[in-house]
Amino acid sequence: MSNILEIRNLRKQYDKFSLKDISFSLERGYIMGFIGPNGAGKSTTIKLIMNLIKRDSGEIKVFGLDNIKNEKEIKEKIGFVYDENYFYEHLSILEMKRIIAPFYKHWDDGTFKKYIKDFNLPPSRKIKDLSKGMKMKFSLALALSHRAELIIMDEPTSGLDPVFRIEMLEILQSLIQDERVSVFFSTHITTDLEKIADYITFINDGSIVFSRPKDDILESFALIKGGKELLDKDTRKEFLAIKENSFGFEALTDNTDRIKKIFKNEVIIERPTLEDIMVYTVRGEIKCLDSY
């Protein structure tokens, strides 16, 4: 399958932070979750993809085209949904649509009306009177009405109540039934990604920790729980990260079979969440996972 987004050796240097030659790709018809702690480089990466800031080196291709040389053509086919929306608050949904629509040569008014109806958005309601969830739906309706093939979402479910979040996730899942559309979904809420993502790209301190199919990630790692007496200089080396408390330890491993051989039946082995993997990587005594 063809890649809808390709990033190769992307670098951006600031005084106190840098993206360190990051690389990953997203195929058509899939949802990729983009995770990492605050300050990891998620927003910088998205701004570089959108050519809102200039890269120092590396390559970004969207739809097989260079994102700088073909910026106008690319942005015709990208739908961008921010955490915060930048609409004219005093205008209604319909008035705001009339301002935005002329910027897109493939705008389809019939599609817009369909999504406004599907999303239960009152056309005459002023932007300032919309809830955060309704603003997100409006942003998505705008993106889909100009036949966007890549939907880039920056914290789209942050601050939404559980009902709105589930509804948004269902909408995203329905989008990729059309195999020409992909979703690049940056979020802190990893439980949302466990429901809908096909791939996970994890960035930390400006470097890619891994970019892999979600199911492979969850099957590759395990949480190990046991008594502190089991830890010594040698056994500590068997874990990627360890958290200790007065009752015992909890650790992350990517080699469950070896842990079983070493500890026999003395430990409890559990399936981790994406949040577990992210937290241990960021806060734990972590070894390098770049080989993934």
Automatic annotation (TrEMBL):
Keyword Lipoprotein attached: no
ABC transporter domain boundaries: 2-230
Molecular function GO labels: ATP binding; ATP hydrolysis activity
Keywords: ATP-binding, Nucleotide-binding, Transport
Protein name: ABC-2 type transport system ATP-binding protein
Organism: Fonticella tunisiensis
